[in-house]
Specification:
With about 50 residues, the chain is α+β, with helices and mostly antiparallel strands. It is built from two helices and three strands, in the order βααββ. α1 crosses α2.
Amino acid sequence: MTGPLRARDVCEALDHELLPKNIEGTRAKLKRPVKLGILTEIDTGSFARTQ
């Protein structure tokens, strides 16, 4: 896949059940690399690698 991914997409790619608790947990985990400058949050909930 190219372009920004949503937490739901990451859960699917990791073969996690698409339950709200899994999606919210993944979203929280994706926000950590955003703070470190590894990922960028393009839109609310859309994450992409920093260029």
